[in-house]
């Protein structure tokens, strides 16, 4: 039995499988957080790895739900930083001449 928690984890043998696999593939995190990866396509690609780790069959929709929940978590943590460029920077230099 696969349990999907509200945090977006797909548990099997008490391991947060989906989160672990996504975190192992760092190149997936940024596009996932920006919503430019299809969760269904990503779930299809991750499914064999998840099934081999859990040693049982997993439905694609279960992986998609875990990805959606994890995406929400990532987006909350990694909000883009915006800068206000309207402020002024004044540099002052103190110099002394020694004879």
Attribute tags:
single chain, 99 residues, mainly alpha, three-stranded antiparallel β-sheet, 4 helices, 52% helix, elongated
What would you say this structure looks like, in words?
The chain is mostly helical. It has one domain. 52% of the residues lie in helices and 7% in strands. It is built from four helices and three strands; from the N terminus they run E-E-E-H-H-H-H. It has helices at 17-24, 26-34, 39-54, 60-77, and strands spanning 3-4, 10-12, 15-16. The chain has a three-stranded antiparallel β-sheet with strand order 1-2-3. Strand 1 and strand 2 (10-12) form a beta hairpin. Helix 2 (26-34) crosses helix 4 and helix 3 packs across helix 4 (60-77). The chain is elongated, with a radius of gyration of 22 Å. The model has no long low-confidence stretch (mean pLDDT 77).
The largest sheet, given as strand count, sense and whether it forms a barrel, is: 3 strands, antiparallel
Gyration radius, rounded: 22 Å
The percentage helix is 40-55%
Q: Averaged pLDDT, please?
A: 77
- Approximately what portion of the residues adopt beta-strand conformation? 5-15%
H/E element sequence: EEEHHHH
Low-confidence stretches: none
Please count the beta strands (DSSP E, at least 2 residues each): 3
With strands numbered from the N-terminus, the spatial order across the biggest sheet is 1-2-3
Overall form: elongated
Structural domains: how many: 1
Terminal-residue CA separation: 83 Å
Oligomer status:
single chain
**Count, helices:** 4
What class do helices, strands and sheet pairing give?
mainly alpha
């Amino acid at each position: 039995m696969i349990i999907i928690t509200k945090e977006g984890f797909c548990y099997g043998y008490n391991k947060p499988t989906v989160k672990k696999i996504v975190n192992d593939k760092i190149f997936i995190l940024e596009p996932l957080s920006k919503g430019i990866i299809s969760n269904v396509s990503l779930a299809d690609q991750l499914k064999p790895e998840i099934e081999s780790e859990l040693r049982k069959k997993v439905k694609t929709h279960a992986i998609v739900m875990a990805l959606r929940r994890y995406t929400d978590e990532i987006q909350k943590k990694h909000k883009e930083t915006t800068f206000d460029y309207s402020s002024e920077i004044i540099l002052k230099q103190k110099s002394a001449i020694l004879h």
